[in-house]
Amino acid sequence: MKHDLHIMVDWFKANKLTLNLEKTSFVLFQPCGRTTDEDITLSVDNIDISREKTVKFLGLYLDEYLKFNPHIKHVCSKLAKNLYMLRSVMNIIPKWALKSLYYSYIHSNFMYGLSIWGPLVLKSNLNRVRTLQKKALRTIEHAKFNACTSVLCDKTGILLIDDLIEMELAKISYRYTMHALPKPVENLFQPNDYNHNYMTRARHNPRIEHHTSKVYYNSFLRRAPSIWTHLGRDIKSKSSLTSYCVAYKKWKLSR
User: pTM here?
Assistant: First the structure.
């Protein structure tokens, strides 16, 4: 590790780049429940690099066990602050404006990377986000604290986070069938006709892979094709991603 670090530093120097050591840290990823007793220290030019237990990578927070618990904490913190703002203006502005604020300050915060972290978090952690989302829906509709959220979803046309996770996963499969995924992501899936030449209706759909790993079982690699197989042909046959999302949303709200 130290050798690779020095190679990287030499590359920076050779390309006239500067590594900001004050903002540089490292994370030692390891299996869940296992801790290392080895005291690993890294330094560059006699300046020690701090070791962290949490890292922010492309806007998503990961801990040293590759779990999204820090990301849930971060999202819930932002949702709670923005929910207070929503409640502060609920008696001043109309419902359509409250709904617009919801999409800007609540919805957008937990939708980022939802197809990645959503299927992998614990139900207890996901429930924290769901509870805050329900409070926001009740605020928009000026409903009581124990109002039925399924009714509020029909009134506002807003899906709960569980349905949004499934929609995001189904969007991956839709984009796969339309060859609209980035090539590295598309290569993670295989079509159903990969192992046979039968002219079945679902031969171009992504194949559901079976794996003993619980992480793989809950990841988008398996859940996206699984959700796709249960969708009706009227939804799958939409010509654009926008019309597909509209049809999927109507189907979920009508159930």
Answer: 0.83
> Using CA atoms in the order 155, 160, 166, 170, what is the torsion angle rounded to 10 degrees?
40
**Do the beta carbons of residue 1 and residue 36 sit within 8 Å?**
no
Kind of pairing between the strands at 47-51 and 42-44: antiparallel
Residues in a beta bridge with 61:
56
- Could you tell me the two tokens for 43? 């330094």
Give the residue among 110, 249, 75, 84 at the shortest CA–CA distance from 170.
249
Count Cα neighbours of 30 within 13 Å in the Cβ-side half-sphere.
11
Tens-digit pLDDT string for the chain (255 aa): 777 778 888 888 888 888 777 788 888 888 777 666 567 777 777 778 888 888 888 889 988 888 899 999 999 999 999 999 999 999 999 999 999 999 999 999 999 999 999 998 888 899 999 999 999 999 999 999 888 888 999 999 999 999 999 999 999 989 988 888 899 988 888 776 666 676 666 666 777 777 777 788 888 888 888 888 888 888 888 889 999 999 999 998 887
Task: State both tokens at 131.
Answer: 């509870």
Cα–Cα separations (whole angstroms), residue 251 to 10, 142, 163: 56, 26, 11
Strand partners, 49: 42
Query: How far is the CA of 9 from the CAs of 22, 43, 45, 93, 170, in angstroms?
Result: 15, 11, 10, 54, 42
Annotated domain spans of the chain: 2-52, 63-158, 164-254
Give me 59's structure tokens.
């806007």
**Cα dist. 118→39, 130, 161, 163, 205 in Å?**
33, 11, 9, 11, 23
